[in-house]
Amino acid sequence: MTSHSIPYGHLRTLFFDVGNTLVSFDLELVKTELARHEIVCDVQDLRRAEAAARPTVSASLSSERTTETLSTFELYLHVMLLNLPAQPVHNESSLARVAHDLVQAFDAIGRVRLWSNLLPQVPETLEALKNRGLQLVVVSNSDGTVEELIAAVNLRDLFDSVIDSRIVGYEKPDPRIFEHALNVSGASPETTLHIGDLYHADVVGARAAGIHALLLDPYGDWINVDCELVPDMPALLQQFPKP
């Protein structure tokens, strides 16, 4: 229990991040792209390395550096590569060059295709939460394609509203994107919970708007953070009182 305990029984609205909350990279696609750079790994290696990169990326965020800057995405990919099993033909500097090349390759692939892997039990969990009368809203830092992205994985109909940072002009952790989401949804901050994967974007930003916040932490990588943690979406559902 933290000093920021969440009143699950009184919540009326849930805000959701998208990347690494509802969907992840298509890891087979990423694995294939890495093989072009002589990086050998399996999907589980990638999954673990990606999660391990999140605290470092989160700590780099500021008002000048958000998740949508190319430098942040490149840092994210570089730290992910550093967390893979050791690669005989690579070192830290060569992996930095690979990360730079991957930014260009993934930009060509497009965000909707890259982030096309539904995380486990996401549709079922969202449906269960919606069936309990909760309003569900996407609040995502994106490039104007997040609505298309969630439609491509058949999640769009589960959400009452979709807030895309490119469209509204504010990016997490700027509290104004959360305030915009509150206005659009008619929700009250005291009865709203935001679920995400990056402390400095999702928790700091939501709290600045008076909203409760929680992090998904599948491998226990977040140490000494002052917020509640759950490993995945089914575990989130278990926090709510049974109907």
Molecular structure report:
With 243 residues, this protein is α/β, with parallel strands linked by helices. The chain is built from 11 helices and 8 strands. The protein has helices at 27-35, 43-60, 70-82, 92-109, 111-114, 122-131, 146-152, 165-168, 175-185, 199-208, 233-238, and strands at 13-16, 23-24, 117-118, 135-140, 161-164, 192-196, 212-216, 228-230. The longest helix is centred in the N-terminal third of the chain and has 18 residues, at 43-60. It is globular, with a radius of gyration of 18 Å. The mean pLDDT is 94. InterPro entries: HAD-like_hydrolase_domain, HAD-like_sf, HAD-SF_hydro_IA, HAD-SF_hydro_IA_REG-2-like_cap, HAD_sf. Pfam families: Hydrolase (PF00702).
Brief summary:
With 243 residues, the protein is an alpha/beta fold.
Helix count? 11
Q: Terminal Cα separation, in Å?
A: 23 Å
Domain module tally: 2
Assigned CATH superfamily of the largest domain: HAD superfamily/HAD-like
Largest sheet properties? 6 strands, parallel
SSE succession: EEHHHHHEHEHEHHEHEEH
- Categorize the overall geometry: globular
Q: Give the CATH topology of the largest domain.
A: Rossmann fold
Record field, number of beta strands: 8
CATH architecture of the largest domain: 3-Layer(aba) Sandwich
The share of residues in extended strands comes to 5-15%
Mean pLDDT: 94
Instruction: Point out poorly predicted stretches.
Output: none
